Amino acid sequence: MAMLFWGRGLRNPVTKKTMQGVQLYCTSVVSGRERVNGVDLFYQQTGKGDHAVLLLPGALGSAQTDFGPQLKSLSKDRFTVIGWDPRGYGNSRPPERDFPLDFFERDAKDAVDLMQALRFPRFSLLGWSDGGITALIAAARNPSLVNKMVVWGSNAYVSPQDLKIYNAIRDVSQWSERMRRPMEEVYGAELFIKTWEGWVDGIGQFAQRPEGSICMELLPQISCPSLIIHGEKDPMVPSFHPQYLLKHIKGSRLHLMPEGKHNLHLRFAAKFNKLVEDFLNQ
């Protein structure tokens, strides 16, 4: 899903370093690149805990634009936290991003293969928005590798209502300067417009599939403990989406945040982080 309505004065500087050991956020976060499926994938890593956790960002997102409070504040003792930039996003460029019909499947394979390349045999997934869709697919395809999963702002299909939402935000010139700036800082104005329009077209193509399915048929294959979080004021994701996930993911639970919007993990970071830590520690 789209990365809008952030309210994020939380951006961190983009590093161009490729070697291990770059210090960010004034904590022990290191960055690196790993060659995976023909692409140099950029990642950030922090913590020394036994429980590995992968953070999966939203559309056009990256670890540092989307997960600053999680990289900074999730327990360093209990978890090893890895944030990644999917291919064509953030610092995982080149290549330029494209959106074939299987782009979520491709991201899911890249994500799992990255964790294997980094020598994490099992791990949990925290997926926001598009990253939540990627997490759903990764968990379904790799039940032996995924410990637990948390998703929010995500959907398993594209409805006519969703299409209206996407088309309403297609023209970035209509966004406020505050909303455009974070993405323009990463991509530049021209590439941001091109990539965003590509995303709108890419997500919209699922509406042509039966029932608008992105990954509906995979949900029954998810066997890991799963937490679905939904902000009741999310303007991007209608409430029928988390309800559908709850119904079709065995044993999942749903937590509603009454004041939460699409960026609930940024706006209510302390509450979100505690909720996630409690779930992962159970």
UniProtKB/TrEMBL annotation:
It comes from the Eukaryota. Residues 52-180 form the AB hydrolase-1 domain. Gene3D superfamilies: alpha/beta hydrolase. It holds the Pfam family Abhydrolase_1. InterPro entries: AB_hydrolase_1, AB_hydrolase_fold. One of its GO terms (molecular function) is serine hydrolase activity. PANTHER family: VALACYCLOVIR HYDROLASE. This is Biphenyl hydrolase like. The lineage of its organism: Eukaryota, Metazoa, Chordata, Craniata, Vertebrata.
